[in-house]
Amino acid sequence: MVASATADARTKHKSARAVASTVTTTDDSFECDTCGTVVPFEEARRSETMGNLDPKKWQTLCCPECGNRLKTVFVGGE
């Protein structure tokens, strides 16, 4: 049982590191696959996330020109 708890703790730690490394910064920009517009993070429109993601930790960024989804990004802390 102790080995199982230790393995679970390692898995959670690895998952937290993986998410932390994918946090989007405000310097990032995204190219829209639909209209080709390059959208800075600050100019992207925010919309509700899909799949019951916590909106305090995740945001879906959309193109301000055509409305296409650009990326769902992790914005919450640990």
Comma- or semicolon-separated keywords:
globular, three-stranded antiparallel beta sheet, alpha+beta, 78 residues
Fold topology:
Blueprint (H helix, E strand, L loop, with lengths): L1 H19 L8 E3 L6 E3 L4 E3 L10 E5 L6 E6 L4
Antiparallel strand pairs: 1-2, 3-4, 4-5
Low-confidence stretches: 6-21
Q: Please tell me the total number of domains.
A: 1
Order of helices and strands: HEEEEE
Helix content range: 10-25%
Net shape:
globular
State mean pLDDT (0 to 100 scale): 76
Structural class: alpha+beta
- Helical segment tally? 1
Using DSSP, what is the number of strands? 5
| Largest sheet composition | 3 strands, antiparallel
Radius of gyration: 16 Å
In which order are the strands of the major sheet placed? 3-4-5
Note the beta-strand portion.
25-35%
Distance between the termini: 27 Å
Quick structural gist:
With 78 residues, the protein is α+β, with helices and mostly antiparallel strands. It is 24% helix and 26% strand.
Characterise this structure:
It is built from one helix and five strands, in the order αβββββ. Strand 4 and strand 5 form a beta hairpin. The two termini are 27 Å apart. It is globular, with a radius of gyration of 16 Å. It has one helix spanning 2-20, and strands at residues 29-31, 38-40, 45-47, 58-62, 69-74. Mean pLDDT is 76; it is low at 6-21. It has one domain (2-74). The protein has a three-stranded antiparallel sheet, with no helix packed on it. The chain has a two-stranded antiparallel ribbon with strand order 1-2. By secondary structure, it is of the alpha+beta class. Helices cover 24% and strands 26% of the residues.
